[in-house]
Amino acid sequence: MLKCPTETCRFHKFRYNNRLYFVDLNLFRLVEVNQIAWDAVELSSTLETPELIDRLSKTYPKQSVIETLRALGDLQDNACIFYSPSRKHPPEQIRDQLKIYVPQSKEAWFTDPESISAGTNIALYQTMQSLSKFADVYISGEKEEEIISGVRTIRLTTEELQESPRRFNQRLNELKINGILACQIPGNHSLLPLLRNVNVPIVIQNHAPRGHAGLAINTTLLHHALMRPFDAFTAPSDSVAKFYSKFVGDTCQFYTNPNGVDAQTFSPMDKSEAKSDLAALMQDDRIQEQFIVGFLSRVQPEKGAHVFIQLAEMHPDLLFVVGGSYLLRPSSQRLPDNLIYVGFLPRKQLPMLYNTFDAYCFPSMAGEETFGLTLLEAMACGVPSVVPRFDGLPEVVGEAGVIVDAEELPEDIAGFAATVSAASLSQGIRVLLEDGVRHELGQKARNRALTLTWEKNAERLVQLFRELDEVKQSQRSTPDLSISFVNHYDAFQNQVESRAVMLNLTPFLEAPLQGKNGYVQTMEEGLALTLLKRHTPKQVETLLAHVLDDRSNASEIVERVLNFLNTLA
Predict the structure, then answer these.
(1) Domain segments of the chain as ranges
(2) pTM, whole model, 2 decimals?
(3) Which of 95, 263, 408, 511 is the most buried (most CB within 10 A)?
(4) Strand boundaries in 187-260, DSSP class E
(5) Is CATH 3.40.50.2000 the right assignment for the domain spanning 271-451?
(6) Residue 11 near residue 24 (C-beta atoms within 8 A)
(7) Which residues pair with 101 in a beta bridge?
(8) How many CA atoms lie within 13 A of 429 on its CB side?
(9) Region 220-238: what's the mean pLDDT?
(10) What is the mean pLDDT of residues 263-272?
(11) Do domains 93-260+459-471 and 271-451 have the same CATH topology?
C-alpha cells in the first residue's frame, strides 16, 4: 500500500493514445497507470493514506482505489516515482548530505597551495577545502580516489556527456548528485552540454567577468542565455551583477558570494620581527628602518605594476616592497632604489611579508579584478590599504582603508578595464602616514577580515544549491501548445494579414483550453510560444529584441507569455 504523505522523485506524466503514463527520470522507467493513480499522485504529498482512500473513493470504486494504491506501493518500495520509506532519510540528514559534482579536473581545483600565485586558483582551492566540510564532492579525475575527506575523484567528464547524455545522467543519478559546481573559463564552452542536457542545478563561479578582449563577456552572456531558472552564477562581489546590468535586463541569476580568508594564518604579528625576518631574507637593512608600502600580485601592467613604480619615484623617502611573479617592465627602465622586488614567496611566508607592510597599495586595473584576495589577506594582518574605486575592491575594503577615484574604461584596452593615477594613490598613501589614522584603519581592516571566512563562503554556496533545488522542484511542464503561422484574407479590407493562431491542441491531442477553434495571438507572442519549447526565456528575449529592435518590448512579451504558460502548468 502506498504510504502517504510521500514525495515524488523526478518524474514526468503524459497521455498518449488515450493511455496514461508515468516516467521515472532517475530510473529511466516507463509505467502505464490508470486514472486513479494519475489523481493519487496529485494528492499523495498532502494526505495520509486513509484520507487519500476516502477522497478517491468519492469518485472511484473503493476496491479499485485500494488495488491501485497497492500497485503504487510496490513502486514506492522500489523507489520508483516515489521515495522509498525505507531509504528516505530525515530532512535534516538529507541537508547534511548534499552531493556536488565538479566537472573540471582535479588539477584545476587542487593545485599545490604553496605554488599558487593567481587569486582565482587560491579561491578554487579554498572553496573546495571548505565545501568538503558541508557536502560530499565528486570531481573529475583519471582515477577514482579520495583526495581529502569529503572529496573524491571519479571517472566522469563532459566529453562522456556529449557521447551519451543518458549514460552520463544515469551516473549522476547513481551518485545522487544534487548540483553541479564549475568555474567559468573565458572562451571555454565545455559547460554548455551540462546546461542543455543535465536536469540538476548548475552553479558557475565567475571570477573573470570581463577582459581578454571581450572573450570573458561573451562567454558569460552565452552561459547566461542557456541558464534555466534553477541555474546561477556566483561572483565574489556585487560589481559583477552591476557590470552585467549593461548587457542583460535581469541579473537575478548573479549571486554574490564573497571570498574568504584564513584569519588564523593571516593575522597581525610583531611588525619589527616581521621586518627583521624580511630584511634578513632580502639582505637589506632598510626594511627594518623605513615606512613600507607593500604590494603583492602578478607584477604586470594591468595589475598596476607601472603605477607602483611611479609611486616609488614620487616618494623617495618611503620604501616600496613588491612581491609576486612575472616582473614585466621595459628593459631600459631601471627600478627606483627605494623599490625592493622580493619575487615569488610560498604562501607559508606571506603572513610575514604582509606584516612588514605599514600600508598596502593595490593599484590593479585588470578586467578580472572582482575582489582582490591579497587585499583581504593584508587586511587580515591588520594592514590598512589604498585602492582605486573600481570593481570589487571598494566592497572588500569598506571603511577600513582609503579609496581613491578611478576612471572605468568604456571598453577594455589590452587587459585594462580602468585607469588610476599615481597622484591619486599618492594622496591616499599620505593619509596613512598619520600614525593615528593608520592604526585605527588597521584595526578596522582586521575586524572586517574576520567577517569574511571560507567557511561562510561554503555555507552560502550550499544554501544556494538548496534554494535552486527548490526552484527546480517547483518547475512544472507546460502543455506543448501548437502554434500555426498563417496568412489571413480580410474580405472587408481586401488584404492579406499575418496571424499566429494557438490551435489549442497538443501532440497528444489534448485540448487544455476551453475554446475549440483556436486563439489568435500577435505574431510576436506566437513566436515566443513556439521558441520557448526549445529555448530559454533569455534566448527568446534576445531574438525578439533583434526582430523588434526594442529590448523593453521584447522583455514584456516574454514575461507575458511565461505568465500565461505558468497558469497552465
Answers:
(1) 11-77, 93-260+459-471, 271-451, 483-568
(2) 0.77
(3) 263
(4) 202-205, 232-235, 254-256
(5) yes
(6) yes
(7) 138, 180
(8) 27
(9) 94
(10) 94
(11) yes
